[in-house]
Amino acid sequence: MRRTILLLIVLVAGITVFASSTLEAASASVETPDPLLLSFREGWKAPQDSSWNAIEVGEISLMLPEGFRTFKEDIYGNFNVLLFDERFSLFGRFLYFTPDSSNREELLKSLISSYYREPATAGEYSFTEFRQFQNGLVAYLVSLKMTASVDYPAVLIYSPGEDAQEIGPGRVGFFLFEPVDYEGTELDRAKAMMAGIVASYIFQPESKPEFPSQEKGDHHSFMELVSRQLEGEDLGVVTENWTFAQGDFFGVMVPRHFTVEFSQDVYEAADIYFYNSLLGKVLFGQLYEGEPVQDSLDKVISDYLGGLGDYGILESFVKQNEESTMYIYTLSFPGLICWAVLYTESTDVGNFGPGKFFVFLSIPDIDEPDLWARWYAGILKEIRF
Description:
Elements: E1 15-16, H1 35-42, E2 53-57, E3 60-64, E4 69-75, E5 78-84, E6 90-97, H2 104-113, E7 125-133, E8 138-145, E9 151-158, E10 172-177, H3 185-202, H4 220-230, E11 243-246, E12 251-254, E13 258-264, E14 268-274, E15 277-287, E16 291-292, H5 293-304, E17 312-320, E18 325-333, E19 336-344, E20 351-352, E21 355-362, H6 369-381
Antiparallel strand pairs: 1-7, 2-3, 4-5, 5-6, 6-10, 7-8, 8-9, 9-10, 11-12, 13-14, 14-15, 15-21, 16-20, 17-18, 18-19, 19-21
Helix pairs in contact: 1-3, 4-6
């Protein structure tokens, strides 16, 4: 799964900065220093604005500006978080994970190349710089040259090994910001927000904010919406600005934040991406023999979601008419849920096939299940063959 398979700030007092002879920076050749770089050197400070809100990411918390929203994936305790501004445009990414490599440059290139192709993977930076803070954490700031006019700031935060350039044991935080919709004074404002967000990670509060306890996604929302939808109720999902993607044998409509890639194997498949995170899949084909629907479900999970670990069925229901049968499930995996829909032209309840079929798999955001339930219910309704 492509992931989807995710600045620095705080009290000026108590910050230790490496001597200029050890600074890994191209700043000497920068005629007009980047405001983010300048603020980094001056000492970023944790956000004090009361309008900012805390979000929970595993055992740590982040502060985000008012109006920001997130999409969060938890895969075995490793987190991939997408950050959206008040316009619901992608603002940045945050990864919180245990790395496989202790080589800082190797890890950084691996992370960047997982999102972008050239030129970002070529290591073309406008500047790089690092510093160590009193709490022991090291921040490595780089500015990726994406185009002639746009840079993407990235920050890697880690506990150092034998020296500051080596990543020591423990968790790593990685921020990657994409300010493509900002320019001029708005870009300066965006970089100030970047600094505040990363600083809130580096300098965790003495006591973690209290977050309302909740199940990992409200699995009832999708089930309820699909049930109502299959009864003919109009859910009011507005699809005028959605995009229709057509394959060889079927098509699907998705919200504007999503993209679709079709492929052919045994059956035609449509992978549904939310930015770079693969969150949905539609399979379409024809079966010439039927089999127990539980066997079909197990095969689908093994083939496409096996890497998520063991699963259980939290809830399910069956909807049948004179021409077809639809099986709808909420599946529970470690750290997340998945909604699965199996449609077959067979009217023999309990069997999947023979006849045409489709399978729809979807993973919702664990913090905003209602929004994602509406999106996925709309996608299900717009599968056309």
